[in-house]
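dumping the sequnces here before i forget
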Amino acid sequence: MSYEVRSLNEECGVFGVWGHPDASRVTYFGLHSLQHRGQEGAGIVANDQGKLNGHRDLGLLSEVFKEDSLLAALKGQAAIGHVRYATAGNGSVDNIQPFLFKFYDGAVGLAHNGNLTNAKSLRTSLEKDGAIFHSNSDTEILMHLIRKSKQPTFIERLKESLCQVKGGFAYLLLTETAMIAALDPNAFRPLALGQMKNGAYVIASETCALEVSGATFIRDVGPGEVIIIDDSGYRVEKYTEDTQYAICSMEFIYFARPDSNIAGVNVHTARKKMGKLLAEESPVEADMVVGVPNSSLSAASGYAEASGIPYEMGLVKNQYIARTFIQPTQELREQGVRMKLSAVRGVVEGKRVIMVDDSIVRGTTSKRIVQLLKEAGAKEVHVRIASPPLKYPCFYGIDIQTRKELVAANHSIEEIRELITADSLSFLSEQGLIDAIGLNYDAPYSGLCMAYFNGDFPTPLYDYESTYLASL
Amino acid sequence: MSYEVRSLNEECGVFGVWGHPDASRVTYFGLHSLQHRGQEGAGIVANDQGKLNGHRDLGLLSEVFKEDSLLAALKGQAAIGHVRYATAGNGSVDNIQPFLFKFYDGAVGLAHNGNLTNAKSLRTSLEKDGAIFHSNSDTEILMHLIRKSKQPTFIERLKESLCQVKGGFAYLLLTETAMIAALDPNAFRPLALGQMKNGAYVIASETCALEVSGATFIRDVGPGEVIIIDDSGYRVEKYTEDTQYAICSMEFIYFARPDSNIAGVNVHTARKKMGKLLAEESPVEADMVVGVPNSSLSAASGYAEASGIPYEMGLVKNQYIARTFIQPTQELREQGVRMKLSAVRGVVEGKRVIMVDDSIVRGTTSKRIVQLLKEAGAKEVHVRIASPPLKYPCFYGIDIQTRKELVAANHSIEEIRELITADSLSFLSEQGLIDAIGLNYDAPYSGLCMAYFNGDFPTPLYDYESTYLASL
Amino acid sequence: MSYEVRSLNEECGVFGVWGHPDASRVTYFGLHSLQHRGQEGAGIVANDQGKLNGHRDLGLLSEVFKEDSLLAALKGQAAIGHVRYATAGNGSVDNIQPFLFKFYDGAVGLAHNGNLTNAKSLRTSLEKDGAIFHSNSDTEILMHLIRKSKQPTFIERLKESLCQVKGGFAYLLLTETAMIAALDPNAFRPLALGQMKNGAYVIASETCALEVSGATFIRDVGPGEVIIIDDSGYRVEKYTEDTQYAICSMEFIYFARPDSNIAGVNVHTARKKMGKLLAEESPVEADMVVGVPNSSLSAASGYAEASGIPYEMGLVKNQYIARTFIQPTQELREQGVRMKLSAVRGVVEGKRVIMVDDSIVRGTTSKRIVQLLKEAGAKEVHVRIASPPLKYPCFYGIDIQTRKELVAANHSIEEIRELITADSLSFLSEQGLIDAIGLNYDAPYSGLCMAYFNGDFPTPLYDYESTYLASL
Amino acid sequence: MSYEVRSLNEECGVFGVWGHPDASRVTYFGLHSLQHRGQEGAGIVANDQGKLNGHRDLGLLSEVFKEDSLLAALKGQAAIGHVRYATAGNGSVDNIQPFLFKFYDGAVGLAHNGNLTNAKSLRTSLEKDGAIFHSNSDTEILMHLIRKSKQPTFIERLKESLCQVKGGFAYLLLTETAMIAALDPNAFRPLALGQMKNGAYVIASETCALEVSGATFIRDVGPGEVIIIDDSGYRVEKYTEDTQYAICSMEFIYFARPDSNIAGVNVHTARKKMGKLLAEESPVEADMVVGVPNSSLSAASGYAEASGIPYEMGLVKNQYIARTFIQPTQELREQGVRMKLSAVRGVVEGKRVIMVDDSIVRGTTSKRIVQLLKEAGAKEVHVRIASPPLKYPCFYGIDIQTRKELVAANHSIEEIRELITADSLSFLSEQGLIDAIGLNYDAPYSGLCMAYFNGDFPTPLYDYESTYLASL
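..and the predicted 3d for all of it:
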């Protein structure tokens, strides 16, 4: 499924490097491999012998750094970067990260992936105390807390501040003398440490960015950990002992790139296994298995392998970005949909098709794809979803904060089947998902956050509590 | 394989519609599905009650028509459009099509996919006679011939002119009263006719564009045919009887979209069969089959199915366009390569991999991919190419006009294997390719042009003859 | 009067240099000083050791060559450039000059200032003979004629062609071996030859461009002359002996820059004298003389000097270009006018003002300025126009081709006075204008074209004859 | 003199309107007339029924609001705007105003013209207390002070804060319920209040902006005053009684538009009188008076009138913005200078010229202009400067903060004459300047700040004290 047609949006990717003479270029490459995590804007802050400079703007990374001179100007041996998720609304460059703060006594770059559950309370309280915020983003809060802290060192001020913010967060900071990564106490968001051949250290939201930058994986950042990297190497500290693994299961299902590993598990392999278990749980007689490109191809090949039914390319995604203006007629709007995804008549005509997708959010996209297949002549379309029904919102960094838009929160599976005009519909079971990913942490669901599926939130919801309860 | 990293360039795609109130929007959708055939520039000419207007520019279609107003300005019930192939050099907007010619006695829009083999002779001869050309493109030649012709009607002037141009060509013309498609006597390039629900006729380089515009396939344009579409319907005429099918085999192997049909054969299906026959011809023991995304995925799945070896996602292509500036160091250049294509360590580490690709041009890309796989831990990499070795240039519309750059023209298969550092290397046989595509025309190679592989050119080479012979 | 608010548009400026190592930069500087002659687009063609390259685009010169790299790419020791006049309509880059023609036997750059009176006939005749035009501009015609000519040398083909085109024209051509300037038989448009310190020759529409490029004036190009410049120096030839001076009087009145000399007469000095004679012809009692900036400041200071009435800055022109969107209300539209020109309350309040302007076209601008002055408190506004009433269109290069829009063609002076709400109104007499400029050629009106004022066109009107006669 | 060639930079212009249905459009018009006060960037914040929205960017106003949609989006009946001065350096959009601050309890827009002398101390002290700044601008400081204040109302918090900032400042604030203007205790910077026909109130840096928006002048904002405008009208309050007029004399000499009035004095009239007194103080025999366009034209016409020597247009300024790339040779650099300003050979050749300019900063520009005149044939060039020698820096809003660059701080008049290669050189006396402007306040120098000329700073210099003293 492509990010254009649905509303499940990741909240960003971060990348940083310490100890490389072309740090901002390495960061550019790393960010490019994380572009799927955010398309609204991008930025890089570099450390040139203690002086911090940055550039950020709205748009894809290749647009933000359209001219090489912009990148060349970001000299220095350390840099952090950020890609920000796409929103429908009118984005402002003020929200694009990394933020670069300059003080009389130093400068700090700050990038953030995640969502705080007590952001509103903290912001109001800080503003009452005279603080001025310059963006809508909850990322600034951490810097205000750090500047308010009376602890003696920057690291201690940071740790004190990390104990005050709640929710899901992966922070990456660049100071004049160090690069620092920090993860929330549940490890909701992925964050990995690696090392390049020349000894430089790399921090990235996904391991695919380590591969791209030629770095070797060292370890994942753990829950409640702070990793400080400077010219003397890296050291791991904890800002809290009150931790418990609850890794976002949607990273495995949909967000992360298939070539990334999270908690030691390869994402493609996990998805393929989701497809295999789905085939075992919900078999159906058919002529072919068709995956919805691109995110469902792994699951579809797993389904095909387990079922023995041949895998075919019955849907083709246009690799070029489509600009879809508001179209005056329904006919043109339908053609607009086909610009992005086409059914292959020569493959599906007259056939019984198993269409494998990774998830269903509102159901509108699934309905369109089923219809594309049927218009192209498919005799039957059996929809198999390689994850359980999405019934609950997320407050830790995924852009679904209301149950209203979730079709599975309001309809039975049979109702959904009817809505999307499929001949049959099945979802992977919760246990199937847990087994397919195969984590082994001593925590509920083996260390996964399954809240989207069962509402079992691993933390209090703070500022979201009341509206969430009202929505049930 | 992606167009960014190799030099096999298609020379354009054309699309036109007659009889639709939003003709230019339909053309925009159609062209978008042909964007893979050309990324250098795009344009549309529309017919607004006999008045022709156009817009064209350098860049992807979505960049050329960045503002909806540009499209909205192209009113009318008929339109033709064009996407032009990407070149390394400094393109000029003067070469972007469709060309729009305005005369005291009418206007004509002209778009062209192909390459003329007698362009240089015709141009010199026309210039000696006072003609002035305004582009480097050989497309203008047809219009000069038409204007010089003394035949009584436009169609007759066109037919006379078509007999003078040689090589591979698919023309699409828009006049004040008609849309006209014409194909060379060998049908080198694909061109199809379809009809929308409202009765509008559509002409497109590939049938995928018919699907996108919601049109039903009527027929392929045949060799030596002219199809005239106007308000009274369509009629098929021939400008020559001296025809013989020699459809470009590279369209099946690499250029066309998998969801297109050419001469009634689905491209994905043909590719999958190439993979199957390749598996039969050149089996090898291994742990997995990996396709080079995106164009080799069909062949790879065919190889996997036929061999019984599991198909895995061992290579991931970044779906976002990479801007690769000139990088100061070798290390950064290598990271630049990985921006586009990554090997999946979690999948290939410690495994014996069969890497399936569609073709080898210079060998540099294959070498890089083999090395990516090995760096990611692959124990063995067996390269299987789903087409025969490319040994000869093309003069009918593909951008390879010298043998020097073709690695297979100058090296044995064993030498190539060594060059690309593969553990083994095999190509599909010529007969395997012909069988996989399965045409049935009463012509050499069942109606395919196999000249890249065996130098058997279906036509005289005219202006290219001497340099070609010298290159042997 | 500023070019933004009226419709008297010059048809371009040309500049060329032969023999300077940075020819395109010298041309850039020269064109910049001719920018007042055309704002729609600009271009430069340079000759790099016999190879011609060019760049052109819509917009001001500084926009067209926004990046220095565009200029740096135009290497070579010779170059020609062009600025094109602003039109209200949607301009196309196809019309921006210099045109660069490439033939199998050479290349030619061509720039043109003027208007042909037999363009339509020539174009139709050429098209009937197979010629294809690529712009709406009449400039292309000359190149078609040259290519059709059977004369043995380029210069002879050019001369033959110059005898076929009629009207007002100043051509500048760049070939692989020479730069050539040519002027119409009436010398309607100005064109001057100069020489730089390093020996390089310069051709420019106005002498101000010679000054800017540090060149010394040698001579004006005369009527019916061709000047050929190459590495051996320059030589002057004639293509016709049937010549008679009829220099455009509007160049002196309005178009040319005050620091230019035309036919040896400084434009500022001529304008100041127009003001002086106007003061003598039409005195009036008042407190101050106010010129309409910028083109009327010379005439106003002449009026002040001759009348002894102090010259004051009662009107201020905003030096920044104003973007005036379509304004929703009348009030906002009026503010839009004031954005460009303001009356100075502190100067004019309670005073009797003599407002000096160079000309009146439609009368709407004059009316607005009178009202601005009255709203700012002026007690009386006496309008004095430093040229005779504009009653006839121009067919030699000025963008007024219908009498309908000319207020003086349809109203008496008293009617105009009432229309523009002035307290009194006078125009300079025709003889006053002739005396102020003070040419001394043996030709009607001492060598000026006075057709705007009296309809005495120095040449047949050819294609315009019938519509002109119908308009009388 | 044009802003391109010298380093006297005004620090901005402000404009605001309360009570007009198209407030942002009125602000756009008003700002356009203040564009001469700042070209680096521009912005507008509008109040749409209590909701504040803004747009700002680098570039001229017409570039910042290139698309009408940007302006149309700023709905509401009140708006404030700002133009920011041009710097050589790499500007950041973060410094472009108005700043728009959003708090849990409201929003505030803030624009500022001036310079604080205790900015550094205040900022450090605020940062020590936890404040985070987001720009380099000293404008943010006021907002931090307001938010820290414990006063009960916004106006009282503002007044308390205004007592803490020192130096020259004109603030314009927009809240959800009011527009507020405030001026420093010396009235260094101009600021005026006016009223439109529909009753809307307008605040502007110069009265020319009142004229453009069709508003009638009500009063200047006085030293130490706060003017609060809301739906009930306007009221004037004072935040301090410790005030004394010291209006920036450079506003009269150079910065302000000639059609503006400051403290009731028309700027053109004051400049003309400077020229008259200069003629009386420093007469010289010559053939003509030439003003340096555009800012010296008033003074030059005054000089001409008083001396009886004719005023001529001996220098012409190109009205189009020149883009001067780094030029490879000295010759090209000189041509670059001539792009902006040309001497008129036809006027000055063989003549004795009195060149009147408003001021001399470094002397390099004067030298160039003298040389332009001599190269164009002027026999003698007598330079007359319509203000006293600039010897001291400014800390109240003009961008000269070191004496090193001021030629008159380090050289005698005779030395400067030699440097600029003039035949004679005189400056207006200090008393001449005071008399020409003719203020009548009960304060030193009749209410003018003359510190540039005599170092008599009307306030302590705070953070600048030590570096200033060291520079003497």
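Confidence is low (pLDDT under 50) at residues 1-8 of chain A.
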